């Protein structure tokens, strides 16, 4: 899901901000055995991440281990050089970056899980299925819904919801399922690129204070083009006709489901206001919004308990109630721990000096534009999260236009391969055997055309 990475203590207490600031590396380990070993460990870990579906090994496990090994080696090298306390400050700096992302995403995931528990998304799915749309209409409907839900619910959650619709109506047409899933991945990633809440990369850029909340919406037209161009071409390959209608059963939204959606929007507004008007990190607004859900969850739980007791006087069941901690427990913990591993591991490579070398090679050698285009291509191979975190760690000198460009390319570049985004990886598991790596690869040239077109529109509209 839905989603999403940065200085809680340092922002709250200015005196600690200086103490927590990451120190400049005093040792150049880029040509040392520690540097080479760290690169090897990170590469091996990421190979395991890429083949998560084939190995059935959760992606958080290799990066958690890699992060620990990398920092142990750095600490050993610095200890040998007499800098026994330097590494501690660097790790604290990276950990604080992760902590803000963690709590932000935890709130967002809790809301999404609450909406799922209240069957809001099930009702949306059933409504689409029961309407009896044709394959082409469903292709465009699911794509457009994915594009507009993703900015709020994050691209991962959106893709999973829309994929459930595709699988429900397209069970007799594997070709429709394959093309429909590709379209959903593209649409969810494109929709997430113009919103701070739509993707982890945009969230990191916003929380870093580089781009204002409303400035992200300058990417709306480029994102639309990124979605529409490949969708139009793929639509010609869709089967004709309509899927068989369902059994006519419509899921009923549980009590409070729609109001929880309203509270989620209120939480987003709170986070934006905290950041824009009070200059408080948005994570504090999200945590305040979690209190909205907690109080409303208390009300739902009490109402559910009262109904159960009135219906069954001898029962103490609270099945129709609501427990917010169930929603918290169902958060994507593997994803949250994966982000920890990535941020700490990439931070370690940056502390060694490799990100400085990469910045010099890419941004000084190629120039900002081509470097940012390359970031999008790399995000299709490596995943956009470590790539964007590396860019934010390097912090090349760029104007607003170039920061918007790298936000766009990192957000939509992952659509070119099924392994390039969390949405693609999740759908390979959900639609196993129907949406595959090679099925997606067949359409990569068309998706790349949309990628190039979105960059051109960004230059045309925002240049």
Entry keywords:
single chain, 463 residues, mainly alpha
Question: Can you describe this structure?
Answer:
- With 463 residues, this protein is mainly α.
- It has one domain (8-462).
- 72% of the residues lie in helices and 0% in strands.
- The protein has 23 helices and no strands.
- It is globular.
- Residues 1-25 and 312-319 have low confidence and may be disordered.
In short:
The chain is mainly alpha-helical. The chain is built from 23 helices and no strands.
Architecture blueprint of SSEs:
Elements: H1 8-12, H2 14-20, H3 33-50, H4 52-55, H5 60-80, H6 86-117, H7 120-130, H8 135-153, H9 155-169, H10 174-192, H11 200-207, H12 220-235, H13 257-277, H14 282-311, H15 324-329, H16 333-352, H17 354-364, H18 368-382, H19 384-394, H20 400-412, H21 422-430, H22 437-441, H23 444-462
């Amino acid at each position: 899901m839905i989603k999403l990475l940065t200085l809680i203590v340092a922002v709250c207490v200015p005196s600690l901000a200086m103490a927590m600031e990451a120190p400049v590396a005093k040792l150049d380990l880029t040509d040392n055995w520690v540097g080479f070993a760290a690169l090897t460990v990170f590469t091996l870990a990421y190979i395991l991440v890429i083949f998560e579906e084939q190995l059935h090994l959760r992606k958080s496990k290799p990066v958690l281990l890699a992060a620990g090994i990398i920092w142990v080696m750095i600490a050993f090298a610095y200890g040998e050089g007499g800098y026994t306390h330097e590494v501690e400050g660097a790790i604290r700096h990276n950990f604080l970056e992760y902590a803000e992302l963690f709590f932000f995403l935890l709130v967002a995931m809790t809301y999404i899980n609450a909406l799922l528990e209240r069957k809001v998304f099930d009702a949306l799915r059933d409504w689409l299925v029961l309407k009896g749309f044709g394959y082409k209409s469903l292709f465009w409907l699911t794509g457009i819904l994915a594009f507009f839900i993703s900015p709020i619910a994050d691209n991962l959650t959106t893709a999973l919801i829309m994929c459930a619709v595709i699988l429900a109506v397209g069970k007799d047409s594997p070709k429709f399922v394959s093309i429909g899933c590709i379209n959903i991945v593209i649409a969810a990633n494109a929709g997430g690129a113009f919103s701070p809440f739509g993707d982890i990369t945009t969230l990191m850029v916003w929380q870093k204070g580089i781009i204002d909340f409303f400035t992200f919406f300058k990417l709306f037209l480029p994102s639309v083009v990124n979605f529409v161009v490949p969708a139009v071409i793929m639509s010609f390959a869709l089967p004709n006709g309509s899927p068989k209608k369902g059994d006519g059963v419509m899921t009923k939204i549980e009590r409070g489901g729609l109001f929880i959606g309203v509270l989620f929007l209120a939480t987003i507004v709170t986070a934006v206001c905290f950041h824009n008007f009070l200059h408080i990190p948005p994570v504090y607004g999200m945590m305040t919004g979690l209190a909205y859900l907690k109080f409303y969850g208390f009300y739902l739980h009490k109402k559910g308990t009262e109904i159960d007791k009135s219906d069954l006087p001898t029962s103490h069941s609270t099945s129709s109630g609501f427990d917010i901690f169930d929603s918290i427990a169902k958060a994507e913990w593997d994803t949250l721990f994966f982000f920890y591993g990535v941020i700490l591991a990439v931070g370690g490579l940056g502390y060694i000096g490799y990100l400085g070398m990469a910045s010099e090679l890419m941004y000084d050698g190629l120039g900002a534009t081509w470097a940012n285009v390359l970031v999008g291509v790399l995000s299709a191979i490596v995943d956009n999260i470590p790539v964007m975190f590396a860019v934010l760690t390097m912090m090349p000198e760029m104007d607003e236009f170039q920061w918007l460009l790298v936000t766009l390319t990192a957000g939509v570049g992952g659509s070119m391969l099924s392994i390039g985004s969390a949405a693609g990886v999740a759908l390979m598991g959900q639609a196993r055997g129907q949406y595959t790596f090679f099925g997606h690869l067949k359409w990569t040239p068309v998706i790349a055309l949309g990628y190039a077109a979105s960059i051109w529109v960004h230059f045309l509209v925002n240049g």
